[in-house]
Fold:
Amino acid sequence: MKVALVTGASSGIGEATAQELQKAGYTVYAAARRVRRMEGLAAKGVRVLEMDVTDDGSMTEGVKKIIAETGRIDVLVNNAGYGSYGAVEDVPLDEARYQFEVNVFGLARLVQLVSPHMREAGRGRIINVSSIGGRIYEPLGAWYHSTKFAVEGLSDSLRLELKPFGVDVVVIQPGGIKTEWGGIAVENLEKTSGGGAYAEQVKQLAGFFSQMDRASEPKVIADVIVKAAEARRPRTRYAA
Ligand code: NDP
Structure:
């Protein structure tokens, strides 16, 4: 049976993806920090890993466990991520660095841990969740967009590196999806730039994000990810 590892599986897109991959017949490992939030998945037979993508030890142990139990990883879905918003002059650089740790370096570390197994098997698929924000940009989103543009560039180079070994690299670019992402982004935005010189821009962007309640359900993207995992010849990018 094919094996998939999905990060950021305690809510939103990752949770829905773990569920849909399992329905598609994969043995699925769901990874996140909040293990209790993955009890619903565990009850459905998904295997749960406590993993913080900023903690090397938890990623190393998680991958080791999957290989020990199954001997393979066919699909890696690098989905964990969040949006830290605010004016460039207001966002503390430590926060910007942390966002890179989660959205870019966590993804890259998992690639380092998983791709040798895929390479040796001569097959595998790495699916990196970027964003429409990896193609376009908006004010007060400089650091989030920077992380997603980095995911795009890293994925494009990686695709060329791994192609000779039969490993595909696919980028997913979700548009607005109804998850915890919007609330976290607004909270960060207001904490960082609310009430200051950028208050008017903050109001506009927060208003836009609050409409995400009416956005698509996470299953829409989960279905796209399953399609990308299963396609005989996957596209380089899927937007939805
Ligand atoms: P959610 O906030 O619902 O889910 C984010 C997931 O990432 C959670 O499961 C969270 O798990 C995990 N995560 C965050 N930080 C860490 C960390 N340090 N280590 C491990 N896991 C972490 O948001 P979405 O489902 O919307 O987001 C999934 C991906 O989709 C993100 O990369 C996001 O940028 C991208 N995206 C989302 C869009 C949207 O409109 N919702 C649009 C475009 C892209 P836990 O806290 O338990 O660790």
Remarks:
- DSSP finds eight helices and seven strands in the chain.
- The two ends are 28 Å apart (CA to CA).
- The beta strands are 3-7, 27-32, 47-50, 75-78, 124-129, 167-173, 237-239.
- The helical segments are 12-23, 39-43, 56-70, 93-121, 142-162, 181-193, 199-210, 218-230.
